[in-house]
Structure formats: structure tokens, C-alpha cells
Amino acid sequence: MTDLTPEVRGARAELLDLCARGLDWGVDPVRVLEDPSTARPAAVLVLFGALDATPSRTEDPLVARDLDVLLQRRSQALGHHAGQIAFPGGRLEPSDAGPREAAVREAVEEVGLEAKGVEVLGTLPPLPVPVSNHLVTPVPAWWTRPSQVAAVDHAETVDVFRVPVADLLEPANRASVEHSRWGRTVRTPAFLVDGVLVWGFTGIVLARMFDALGWAVPYDVHRVVQAR
Description:
- There is one protein chain.
- This protein is α+β, with helices and mostly antiparallel strands.
- The chain is built from four helices and twelve strands; from the N terminus they run αββββαββββαβββαβ.
- It has helices at residues 6-21, 99-111, 165-169, 200-213; strands at residues 40-49, 68-74, 85-86, 89-91, 118-120, 127-129, 134-143, 157-164, 174-181, 184-193, 196-198, 224-225.
- The strands form two sheets. Strands 1, 2, 3, 4, 5, 6, 7 and 8 form an eight-stranded mixed sheet that branches. A four-stranded mixed sheet has the order 11-10-9-12.
- InterPro entries: CoAse (IPR045121), NUDIX_hydrolase-like_dom_sf (IPR015797), NUDIX_hydrolase_dom (IPR000086).
- Keywords: Hydrolase, Magnesium, Manganese, Metal-binding.
- This is 8-oxo-dGTP pyrophosphatase MutT (NUDIX family).
- Residues 38-185 form the Nudix hydrolase domain.
């Protein structure tokens, strides 16, 4: 990691510290699982690093302009979260030692990254996803040795891309999404960068992590965009 800027290396240290101390997701009551014992365990890889040489468009950000996070677009054919932007990840298998191993394995299967180039930094508390009855553990990780990534199985993933963290934090790119659940209107964090809308589980994880890391910038919390 000697070729990285001090700011990017500093982000890695802050992520390590976040994994060590944990965080409170502040889950909305409608996201609480009725019976967590029946939920299926899953994990996602929240992969940060300098994923390519193109810096963010945002100038003078609080984070390094070359700090990115890896995301993918899910297939429209999927039963849950179809077409949404997501982290690589999926359900734990019996062969997985735990969430860390599951997140990396799923990322290899979905986007083709080389596992040896990924440093797992730790785990964050599991977050419930009631619509699919999953309990999902976010696994923050660091990109130590870049490798080619692309959608491997188009039945699950149709696009893989990096997003500069500074662009996600840009106040003009932040908003909320409102949707109905069990007869109640729920508002969750969203990011809109270059026409790409990040919301739902992925938006919640990124927003809460940015808050806990002290990276977030004040934005118009009353701005609402339409879910896609």
C-alpha cells in the first residue's frame, strides 16, 4: 500500500477502528424481524480502496478523492431487490467458516475479484432485511492488490463498478427514498451519483458507516427521490 496517498491509508485505519468499536444501525421499527431465529444469515463485502486511477469529481472533500467503494447492479430477474445497487455478497453456506469467508467467496463468484487482493478489516453488527428474511453482516474490507472485476453470473449481477466515496458524500448527491411497508411510509438514506441511485439496505449501510466514521457532510434531509 506504499503507492497510496496518506489520506487513503488513513481511511483504512479509520475503517479498522470502526470495526473494532462497532456501531448502532438505528434500525427503524418496521425493519425489525418478528422472529430473528428464522432469519437466514448472509454477508456482504463492503470493499474500499483506490479501485482505479480516476479521482472523484467532488473537490475539497473530507476524504481522499481516490478512495472508492465497490458496488454492483442486481439483475431485474431476481425475486428480491431486483435491479437495485448492492454490495457483492449472499447467503452463508455450510462450507463458510463465517461471515468474512462468505462475503469474500460471494464476491469472487459474483464479480470475479481475486481473494488474495482483499484484506478483510473486520465485521459490523448484522442488519435485518425483513423483505427477504435475512440477517446480513456487513464485512468492511480493503483493496490491497487490484484485479479485474466484472459481472460473472448475469442471472444475478448485470454491472460492476466503483463509486468515489467523496462523490457519495457530496451534499448535492444525497437524498432520501420513501416507500411503503406494512401500511406505513418509511424513509431511508439514498445517494444519487451520475444517475445511479443507491438506496435500501446498501444506502443504509453506507450512510450509517459514513456517520460513524465522521465522514458525512450536512445535506438536505428533506430531499426525496423516487426509488427505481
